[in-house]
Design brief:
3 copies of one chain form a homotrimer. Chain A is mainly α and about 220 residues long. In chain A, about 70% of the residues lie in helices and about 0% in strands. Chains B and C meet through helix 3, helix 6 and helix 7 of B and helix 3, helix 4 and helix 6 of C.
């Protein structure tokens, strides 16, 4: 399966998208640490694991050198995100009076949504670049987008996103499919990537706003 | 340590055994999702992780290209298994009146037993093929057999098989030892592999049937 | 960034430190299995995962061949540690009357502290040897030191060390920084390594003895 040429050319763009996704995921990891009332070191650890976890798994699976090992700036970005959350996040827990999720949880959700959409595209693009089959490239996009958050939840002892019946994996899947599909149709990186990002983010945003979820196994059809 | 030649020759057989193990493990992952009343996307994710998780860890550890990345058909097999479970599994929870495990749990256990026995052999064989030392090949067989199920349980938030005091790891260990031992003695792949498979499956089946378990630390000898 | 030459020369020393760290971490894993009243197979599994888990992650991340695959003696050391704990650990649970941690937990803590300090140095040194950037080498030291214990806790279903607000990651971080810093200043392996080990162990020991912990997010400054 030939690698679409325009993707190859735009790896610098990927590089910056990667940083942005690392930063927002890192911040979401630090917010998880804030919710668990952890110390500054755990803030940094959670930020780093959430920020680079998905991409690390992708690189290990496709046999690429792990992206942050020779570019420690990725980890530094995560640590800065952790520091920002430590300094800026409201100290007092403020559970919403109506039982709705508080502001901190909502902030984490939206950062997570941005990171997820960016990683779905970046993960697929890096895999396509390395000559991985398109189907597996979609899987890599989903893994890159979802895995950091899954590790964060497992380590924080919270129910992970796989069990929450959210539209999360689904949104990452949509974004990765749109991006890989458009790339195979010959679109260059930016239109394909922005379409994938927009599709993933829009679906996730709608799911957060209207609290959509997929029907559970065994539930009666409505 | 020389690689037994007959194993090298039979990698096509391995290939098919691999698919079979992936399918049954995938189904067991989907059944775990059914028990947790998840949606279809989580069915697919659990099926894929359980199906290819053990083999993925093996390939990463022995430095082989991860087996499903260039052959997405493995993932597709998992997704088909998830779809089959979604369509065919009984929708209503049917806890057994006597407090025994229900049918769904039993189905998962038996599929798991088949996958475990196949993976104990396949995992060891692939490691031997790549020139890994026999002792480590046994370890790879056990990891390949056990790791998919361990991830499934950790992600599903259930007590994982390491904590259940089942004869599970033990059965995988027996199967891998039998296979590697017979291979070193010069047997060709099929007799060695079938012996290993049979040993692992028989021990696991007996343990399920008679609810055997190993003595716990500190328990008085009977 | 040039690799400090004296480190390269002393890889034999590393090799033995590695064994010692594997053995003490292996024993701490087996003690976790003893606390959970597991069987002998789970003792071995926990000992192996805890003993080699951190180093395995390090090797996968820096792209080195996983250290125990071609040298199964590491796994054998873990299994011997498991056997020793099985035979020697007191069988009866002996909770301390005052609600303090019992002897078994304290033994695990101190073994863990030794292994952590050794691994913080060994992990960084191996990464430096392979030409990894100093900042990432520090990260590798911390991961090598912490990851085995984190996996042990996740698999044992206990709250993992990231959530305990202990001075643990902090101690590993200090040890790795001291070692990498002194190495970059041109010190040879033994003085740099012993300084790093001593710094990590001393901080951890003080934290255990005086039950120090870092301030939690949102806690009022004292």
């Amino acid at each position: 399966m030939p690698v679409p040429a325009p993707i190859e050319a735009l790896s610098t763009a990927l590089y910056w998208l990667d940083y942005a996704a690392v930063a927002v995921f890192g911040a979401s990891g630090a917010i998880a640490a804030a919710r668990a009332r952890q110390d500054i070191i755990t803030f940094g650890f959670f930020a780093a694991i959430t920020g680079v976890g998905g991409g690390t798994l992708r690189d290990v699976l496709i046999g690429a050198p792990v992206f942050w090992v020779q570019r420690p700036s990725y980890i530094i970005v995560c640590l800065l995100a952790a520091l920002a959350v430590w300094c800026l996040a409201p100290k007092s827990a403020s559970p919403h009076p109506d039982g709705k999720p508080g502001k901190r949880l909502m902030a984490m959700m939206w950062l997570d949504a941005l990171g997820m959409a960016a990683y779905a595209v970046v993960g697929s693009a890096k895999a396509l670049n390395l000559g991985v089959a398109p189907f597996s490239a979609v899987v890599m996009g989903v893994l890159t987008a979802a895995f950091g958050g899954v590790i964060r939840d497992v380590l924080a002892g919270e129910p992970n996103l796989l069990l929450r019946r959210d539209i999360y994996i689904t949104a990452a899947l949509l974004g990765a499919c749109v991006f890989v599909g458009l790339s195979l149709l010959g679109l260059s990186f930016w239109p394909a990537g922005l379409s994938g990002f927009a599709a993933a983010f829009a679906l996730r945003a709608a799911a957060i706003h209207w609290t959509w979820c997929l029907p559970a196994f065994g539930a009666p059809p409505k």
